[in-house]
Amino acid sequence: MGFLKRFFKSVFHENELARMGNSFEHLSEEQLEAHLDVGSYNGFELTEAVRPSFDLKVIPTQGFRREVYRDEQTGSSVPVLMGSATRSNLFDTFIELLDPLGNEVDVVLESSHYQQSASHSDMYREHIDLPVLKSILYDYEDMLLNDGCTGIAVLNPHLPMEVQFDEHKLLIVYGNDLKPFENVMIDRDIYPMPEMRFITEAEHVHSSHQRYQQQLDELRMRLGMDENYG
């Protein structure tokens, strides 16, 4: 296990070691490298941000399903769409999902780069024109796709609706009227699959790189966010 611990300490979240369990525990160096080198499953292309468990209890696939988020404190319920898209289709789908939010939005960057545990830091920017935001995000497409320590959420608090592109590179939409977002997904060949499972529903590991941390700081400054994390 010595090589594995050194490898994951330098490449993956340290807290992921506790989550991997038996799927990764007894792998040889060759088995680990072979697994991490797999870039697609049944035609579904992975980003570099995350890899499924070695036993492949969940095989990534393209599709979406409906969920309901229930707030235990308030008792309220909000419809949710959860979607997954192949790499070549993923970022453009995220960008198109922003259109139903309106011309002015708020944006949140979520990062675990500076955290020692499983917690995250959120950085918030209010009132940015959507075309301006899209233009900036395209400049950081590589980082947003491939950094397993960074997620982003774009929202209109007045509707209210929110689109998340999380650190697992899943597409998550909250809102009472999800039909416009469903239409975007279907137009991009992402179809409803009520029984599909996502990579977050089994063991998985995140990957990052120092250059992505630097690019995240650049993006934060481009968006006019406070430099303090928290």
Would you give an account of this structure?
This protein has 230 residues and is of the alpha+beta class. The protein has helices spanning 2-11, 16-20, 22-25, 29-37, 87-97, 130-139, 141-146, 179-187, 210-222; strands spanning 40-41, 44-45, 50-52, 63-70, 77-84, 104-111, 121-129, 150-156, 161-165, 171-175, 204-206. It has one domain. It is built from nine helices and eleven strands. A hairpin with a 6-residue loop joins strand 4 (63-70) and strand 5 (77-84). The longest helix is centred in the C-terminal third of the chain and has 13 residues, at 210-222.
Query: What is the β-strand count?
Result: 11
Query: Which class best fits the helix and strand makeup?
Result: alpha+beta
Give the CA-CA distance, first to last residue.
34 Å
Shape: globular
Q: Secondary-structure element sequence? A: HHHHEEEEEHEEHHEEEHEH
Helix content: 25-40%
Strand content: 25-35%
How is the main sheet built?
A: 7 strands, antiparallel
Poorly predicted spans: 1-20
